[in-house]
Amino acid sequence: MTHQHLPDDEIVARLRETPLFAGVEDAPLRELVARGEIVDLEPGEVLIREGDEADALFVVLDGELEVTRRSGDSRIPLAVVGPGSLQGEIAALEGGRRLASVAALRDAEVLRIPVDALRELLATGPDVALSVVRTAVARLRAMESTLREREKLAALGTLSAGLAHELNNPAAAALRSVAALEQAVHAAESLPRPSPPPRPPADTPPPRSALDRADRISELETISGSAEAANALVEAGWTAAALGEQPPDVVPWLAADASVRQLLGELEIALTRIRDIVGAVKGYTYLDQAPVGQVDVRIGLEQTLVILRHRLRDIDVRTEIAEDLPPIEAFGSELNQVWTNLIDNAVDAMDGRGALLVTAEPDPTPEGIGVRVTIGDSGSGIPPDIRDRLFEPFFTTKEPGRGTGLGLHISHGVIARHGGRIDVESEPGRTQFIVSLPPTLPRSIAADEPGPG
Questions:
Q1: 3-state SS class at 258
Q2: Cys bridge to 310: 29, 107, 162, 201, which one at CB 3.0-4.6 A?
Q3: Are the C-beta atoms of 367 and 442 separated by less than 8 Å?
Q4: For residues 397 and 130, what is the distance between their CA atoms, to the nearest angstrom?
Q5: Is 335 exposed, middle or buried (0-12, 13-18, 19+ CB in 10 A)?
């Protein structure tokens, strides 16, 4: 691809149109242009790849580029930029890795400015350095705001998918029970009902094990005529000895009656499970409740574990919650988002298999009795050299696409807004996030609307 590149004077003019270089004199700008390199891009060609080391920043001279960030298996569009825009300056200034990817939407021309040339420019005076900092901070805030909202939607989608799966299982079980119940009721109604109907012995102990249960079913199958009927009779408490005392013509009705009772029990279990899930969702989101109120942290933790049950199937989950845990003044839905982030991170740290311990206990503070929550996992631990960066925006140890690096940052902000603190203790095989919350919100916060959390 061959382009007629802009003359240097016009490139200098384009640079001055950007907030980053608006106050820079001609001579340093010409030096930047001389040190820089013109890069031509075709549609779809990648200029910046998320996760790569940053060695330059770019100024768009012509064309359109799209800025995206990976989230799971998809890409989140952050912005479409045109002539005069800066790209990659945050990572270039920090000397870290690229926070997002940039690719051409149509033919484009950009000026690549090496990091060394930018640093030399910053050394020319405080006004230039201040301008750069202001631009970088504004860009960072805009990116964080966009990703924060996108992460909320992504989290909602993940939770919704998990809840759909959790609800589908008991709903399907309920439908199966209803269909079978119709047949069982019809069978019972078609048989003569003994009067009074015999009842199983009240002192029959339940099967001690699966093997014991299988033996009882096998014994009753020879009397009842089918494994299904025998299973229902065992569930109802009948034994071979007790059933053998009944007239043979009564046994079919007893089997049909036991099947009806068994199916009603299964239906009750399935509907109770659905009710519990729906109740947990309502409580988790604090529907129909004021944003600020007296919050029972125990309930919030339990509801979060219900919501995340699909993520915890291969996790050994233990909870140790004090009986005398006091209620605290809080934004309940925001705290639940913190528990969700911390538990979700713990599952990722264990690759979906391990032990999760959730504890909550009273925490004496100068303001009264607050609450301390600890969420621990048996993962490989957090290296000491990165613990101080855990709560920075966009910082993540996960590979690109598995996290935005905002979960812990958001959690830290929520806890700080409550006047609390969040600490980390970690070693191989044992990591703990410890959240300390006071009994009441700071007075300056209590009357506010909920934050973006």
A1: helix
A2: 162
A3: no
A4: 30
A5: buried
Asked if pLDDT for residue 13 goes beyond 50, the answer is yes
Of 2-16, 44-58, 250-264, 320-334, the least confident: 2-16
Q: Which of 386, 380, 324, 331 is nearest to 353 (CA)?
A: 380
Supply 400's token pair: 């690109």
Model pTM score: 0.48
Length of the chain: 453
Q: Which helix (H) or strand (E) holds 361?
A: strand 354-365
Q: CA–CA distance from 63 to each of 32, 104, 128 (Å)?
A: 21, 8, 27
Separation between Cα atoms, residue 119 and residue 70, nearest integer Å:
29
**Backbone region of residue 433 per phi and psi (left: phi > 0; alpha: psi in -120 to 50; beta: other values):** beta
Least trusted range by pLDDT, from 135-144, 325-334, 420-429: 135-144
Residue 246 has pLDDT above 90, yes or no: no
Residue 119, classed as helix, strand or coil, is helix
**Which ranges in the chain are annotated with CATH 2.60.120.10?**
8-124
CATH pick for 294-446 out of 3.10.450.50, 3.30.300.30, 3.30.565.10, 3.40.50.1260: 3.30.565.10
pLDDT digits (tens, 9 = 90+) for 431-441: 999 999 999 98
Q: Say which residues have a Cβ less than 8 Å from residue 349's Cβ, sequence separation at least 6.
A: 377, 379, 380, 431
Sequence-distant (6+) residues with CB within 8 A of 169 are: 273
User: What whole-number percentage of the chain has pLDDT above 70?
Assistant: 76
Q: Are 97 and 53 in contact (CB under 8 A)?
A: yes
Alpha-carbon gap, residue 436 to 365, rounded angstroms: 10
Helix axes 251-285, 126-189, angle to 10 degrees: 160
| Nearest partner of 191 among 264, 94, 260, judged by Cα | 260
Contact 117, 60 (CB under 8 A): no
Is 213 a residue whose pLDDT tops 80?
yes
Distance CA 393, CA 373 (A): 23
**DSSP one-letter code for 284:** H
User: In whole angstroms, what is the distance from residue 225 CA to residue 228 CA?
Assistant: 9
Domain ranges in the chain with CATH number 3.30.565.10: 294-446
**CATH architecture observed for domain 8-124:** Sandwich (2.60)
> What's the one-letter identity of residue 393?
P
C-alpha to C-alpha distance for 254 and 266, rounded to whole angstroms: 18
